[in-house]
TrEMBL record:
PROSITE patterns: PROKAR_LIPOPROTEIN
Domain Bacterial surface antigen (D15): 442-760
Keywords: Cell outer membrane, Membrane, Signal, Transmembrane
Name listed for the protein in its UniProt record: Outer membrane protein assembly factor BamA
Compartment(s) where it occurs, according to its Swiss-Prot or TrEMBL record: Membrane
Keyword Transmembrane attached: yes
Database matches in Pfam families: Omp85
Species, as recorded: Epilithonimonas hungarica
Gene Ontology terms: cellular component: outer membrane
Chief place of localization: membrane
Amino acid sequence: MKSQFPIHFRPFIALSSIAIISSCSNTKFLKDGQMLYTGAEVKIESDSLPKKQKKALKAELEENLTPKPNSSFLGLRPKLYAYNIAKEPKKEKGFNYWLKYKFGEKPVLLGDVDKEFNKDILVNYSENKGYFNAQATYDTVSKNKKAQVIYTVKPGNQYLISQVKFQEDSTLINQEIQNLKDKSLLKVGNPFDLGVIKAERERIDNGLKEKGFYYFHPDNIIVQADSTVAKNHKVELNVKLKEQTPYLATKQFSIDKVVVFPNYNIRDVKDGKYSVPMSEDSLSKYAYEDIYVIDPEHKFKPRIFDRALYFKPGDVYNRKDHNLTLSRLISLGVFKFVKNEFVVSDSLNHKFDAYYLLTPRQIQSLRLETLGRTNSANYGGGEVNLNWTHRNFFRGAEQFKAAVYGAFDVQLGGPKDANNIIRVGANTQLSIPRIVAPFRFNSSSAFVPRTNINLGYEYQSRTELYTLHNFNASFGYVWKENVRKEHDLKVIDITMVAPQTVTEKYRQQINGDPANGIPANPTLQRVVDKQLIFGPTYTYTYTNTTSPKTNTIYYRGMLDLAGNITGFLTGANAKKGDQKNIFGVPFSQYAKMEHDFRFYHKFNEKTNFASRIIAGIAYPYGNSEFVPYSRQFFVGGSNSIRAFRARTLGPGSYDPRTQNATFYFDQSGDIKLEMNAEYRANIYKFLNVAAFVDAGNIWLVNDDINEQGINTRPGGKFSKDFLSEVAVGAGVGLRLDFSILVLRLDLAMPLKVPYYEKGDRWVLDRVKFGDSSWRKDNLILNIAIGYPF
């Protein structure tokens, strides 16, 4: 009889069956004399240790025991059961092989446990923590072919540091060590701890590296512990250099020559083209300022290395400048490999040459990208991008990027009158690895500051409605203080929007057609108005999310000031009818800021909590009564409030359903408040699940009043009742995390809808899960790439 289930369902059926029946004893698969190892427990016997200290020591000791027992879930061992029931595969592939060796776990037996080894581990670890008289024993408890090992540890009293001495002598290296002792990690009164001693040796090594002792090593430091000279469980520590410390490790080195190979290739070295070190005669023709750049083909301008290198001849070596130089060379973006060598050139005077061996990346590259996408606004589409990159455009590590693209979005469902969107465009960027300005800009960051010049054009067609030409240009700077802090200042950011065609159908939506039940919507005029936006923008980003901390944050703040100086100088005042033009186009004047704050809490390796708050405001004044449509805020969609389709929410309590369906997805506002919270958990390798809650909305600064004095979006203005107009949605998500790609599916439903009647906005009492029309309108599936925040 053939299986009733398709092949692709069988793994899920098998796993479900395992989860149900794995409560059956795994011990029936054991051979005679075998016992399943269920783990170990450490018991601490001590009358002198506080309860909290006992608990901490117990946890640390148990963590060091090996092997670990088979993993369990709610008291069951499904992975072990899968291993036991799966047949031995004939080949290293197929479902049976996956079930036994990929999903399953081989049984951990009592015979696999080296109890004597573990006992020694417990004693040694205790002694390393200052329990010098620790003793340990073990016993085995077994029942029904299952065994547990109980280790009993008697740690005795923990020894405390009574004195820390740094042995003195007249050598230069000892003087530098003495200068470092004030910040010693070894403190009188603290417990003896071998881990702290190792950290202290690393600290001294780091300090000496900053003072020119390049060949020094932490192992050259010895910390002697004497517990015989003090009573009451005290220990004295004596920090000193080992007598066998190599000669070079005790000497302070300075830089003799700095030599750069910007076109280095290991094959050229084998062919005898390059050699390290090089003679004075060979170097002389490559001199530039006070460095040597070995570049016979003149592929790079020497001055880029003069800016990037922090070592100059005569400088005392220090690790900070060493690492800073390597980081800056890497951040130029033109070198694939960056290698550094120090070669002793004068052993008597303790000097060495610094060689930088740089292997360039491919200077030019051409890349074709295609992608498909969908969004919660019932659109699906694709995009094709052709990108060309030149990483050394003017021989100064300038990166020039040019791209052409075409994209389309087609209505997949929803409002029948929604229109397709076509976009075609091109953009270029020249990124110069320095600040181009009339003033001098010095940066000691590991990241090279950049001057960016951007030019772009896009043709946008919304079929049957309008076509637009969009031009943009910007000039500005990007620089990093460190790996956490980044600044992006666009001194000038210009956008010009010019309509090509506006159809009669679209005009009808703007002006209204009462005979056909179409209300006037003058806000749509702003989409096709000629727009000229120019001014500076500034963005600051702080993040420590790459650190291994339990709690991490991300912050991005943005300030956009458009037309402010021009508006002030011309005395423009749109509200009084005195609107000024440039080249026949009214320029926009507004101030906008936005703050994006995110907090992440890591419970363990598999579960974490992520949250986000976004707050922003855009205020028009002077030459503008309204903020340009392209610079307003929007909410809804896969990266926002997921229970509402993209751009369908707000402003305020305004009901967008009162508009013609064609423009249901065009809601914008001047004020934005959004909050998101998400619990994330990994359930199996690349498979992650999430539960989330989203809340927020947008509002207007001023009412949308048309020429007839009618408010076209009633309820949209920000007021003291704004909290009652905050939309709320919740849902669950499935994420397939393949490291290079994260496919996300989020299913959400609204909990609070701001455009319902004020006392009836919470919608749980409206839930009708059996009603297919309710599900269609209220259960929103978001398909996206990457995490929402």
